[in-house]
Structure formats: C-alpha cells, structure tokens
Amino acid sequence: MAFVTIGELVVDWLSATAGQSLLESGSYYRCLGGNASNVAVGLSRLGGSVRLLGKLGDDINGQFLTSVLAREGVDVSKIVKDERYPTAQCFCLTGLDGGHSYHNWPRPNAAQMLSCKDFSAADLNGARFLHTTGLSCTHDPRRAAISRAVDIAIELDALVSFDAGFPTGEDTAVRRSFEQMMDSAHVLKVNLPELRFWSQAQLGESACEMARRMFSIYRPIVLVATLGAEGSLVVTDRQLTACPPLAVDSVDEIGAGDGFISGFLYKLWELLGDEASPAGLRKLSRQQLADAGRFGNAVGALVTRRVGAIDGLPAKAEVSMLLSGSVK
Question: Is the dihedral of CA 323, 325, 326, 328 positive or negative?
Fold first, then answer.
C-alpha cells in the first residue's frame, strides 16, 4: 500500500432540508464520512493504493461502511469490528445561510476505541504516506493509537500527513497532544479558521503572514493552507506559493478539505515515486509543489459539485479535465 489512513470511520447523515434543527429534520441522506474514510476513497479514486486502519461496531452501520470502502477499492482487511460499541455516526444540518453544524453520536463509539492493540507495525510496511487528522486525536485510546502509528511511519521513513482540524472547547491537554502531532508531521494541512487559531493571528493579518508564522512554529517540511474560494497556500522553509482556485458550479462545501489533501498527497506520490520520503519531499522544486497545490485545489473544487464528500470525489481523468479547462 502506498498510503495508509487512520482515524475516523463514520456514517454521515446529511439533512435534506436546510434550516431545520436536529429535532425538526426528518429526512436524511446516508453516506460514508470521516476524514480518514474520505481521504482513503479520494486517494483510491485517483489511482492510489490505500489501506484504512480504524474500528467499527458489529452492526448494520459498520457493514454499510465496510461495503462502501471495499467497493471503492480501499483495503479494509485491517479494520477492526468491536462488539462492545456501536459504529460512529454524525448528523449534519445545513443552515439557511449554507453553513453546517455537526452532531456526533453515540459517545463513546467504536471509532473512538481504536487502540494500539488493533494494528501492528507490519500493517504499515511498504506505505510511503500515513495520513490522519486532529479530530481523531481528542481522546484516548485512539489518540495513543494514532501517535503510535505516526511513530511507526517515522521509523519506516514514510511521510506523515496531518490535518490539524481542532474542535472548539477541548482542554489544554488535548491541545498539547495536537501540537505534538503537528511537530511530528511532514505535511501539515489547515483551513483558514484553523490557520487563524494555530498561528495566533493578529488583527488585520493576511493569510500569507499567518501561514509563515505557523510554519515557523511547527516546522513541517510543507504547510498547506486551504482558503476556500481563494485557493490555497503552499509553504516551505524556502518559499510561499499561492495556488489559484479553479472555478466549478459548487453546490456544497462538505468534504472539500478532505478532497484537497487527497489530491495533494496523490500528486506528491506521483512526483516522488520511489523517493517518497522526508528527504525526497525536501528536494521538490517550487513548481512541483505548486503543481501539487493546484492538483489539490482541483480535487477539492470538484467535491463541491455534489452534496456529501464521497459523491463528489473525482477520478483522475476528471481532475485532468478541470486542470485543462474542460470542466466547469
């Protein structure tokens, strides 16, 4: 497997009617969700070989997620079933302004109970990339499991990718564990609100200023910041590159960030080949990293043409068409 993702395995329930509360909404669209799942599917559709490490309940929702992932070509052989806890679910509501709110249930759930005993170093053998997210690192035992997976990836000289999503309201101990993870990451990804938070933004600062300071704090090899309609930034110790957005007919923004990092990592794999390692990543030119940023922008943009991340995640041919100006 070129890629391993670890963390969230969730059934998403997307409300079909905007403006309704959790008590009012009665019609939902069921789909696969969670950063680790979305990124795994995104990489597979682009042509990457990917394994997912996670935990499900021994229930109908777990069967649904396993069947979707297997159909998408993701290696599900190391997904663990837990009879003690149900599969994680997330109810997503859309406001009249187009914004989203998320309600996770139940707590605890099987995804949160992933532990170090549920996988071994052999499950990462051959992987050149390990991807995970901050949303999977809020509580033990999963937090400790992901930390162990990152340590194994580093020992194997693989590249560690970390999406620094941070849920509000978490305590100092959780924040400290996030920062330790960001210190370990070779590829560190944030969106604009997360960039403001982690860079300790000052009033009136530009995204470029915030990105440079965040890079100086956590020192990844590459920092990527997604800026929605403004495209993305790719930052290294040598330069900051702005990657312009690509225009599509957008319907919904859910999953755009997961799509971006899928595309960015896939393009890095294409560029690096057998040299996919921290040393290889440092050798990439500004133009190569800009190409990866633009590829990620294209994948993220295409996701927004559908409701729900998985329905919009594109095949490589669709990305190529958008980059060539053939798709809107």
Answer: positive
pLDDT digits (tens, 9 = 90+) for 108-121: 999 999 999 999 99
Which amino acid is located at 117 in the chain? K
- The pTM score is 0.96
Which is it for strands 10-15 and 232-235: parallel, antiparallel or unpaired? unpaired
pLDDT at 169: 64
Give burial (CB, 10 Å; 0-12/13-18/19+) of 65.
buried
Contact by Cβ (8 Å): 4, 51: yes
Q: How far is CA 173 from the centre of its chain?
A: 23
Long-range contact list for 67-72, CB < 8 A, 24+ apart?
68/32, 68/41, 68/310, 69/32, 69/37, 69/40, 69/41, 72/40, 72/41, 72/44, 72/45
What is the 3 state secondary structure string of the chain?
CCEEEECCCEEEEEECCCCCCCCCCCCEEEEEECHHHHHHHHHHHHCCCEEEECEEECCHHHHHHHHHHHHCCCECCCCEEECCCCCEEEEEEECCCCCEEEEEECCCCCHHHCCHHHCCHHHHCCCCEEEEEHHHCCCCCHHHHHHHHHHHHHHCCCEEEEECCCCCCCCHHHHHHHHHHHHHCCEEEEEHHHHHHHCCCCCCCCHHHHHHHHHHHHCCCEEEEECHHHCEEEECCCCEEEECCCCCCCCCCCCHHHHHHHHHHHHHHHHHHHHCCHHHHHHCCHHHHHHHHHHHHHHHHHHCCCCCHHHHCCCHHHHHHHHCCCCC
Query: How many whole angstroms separate alpha carbon 51 and alpha carbon 44?
Result: 9
pLDDT tens across 79-96, in order? 999 999 999 999 999 999
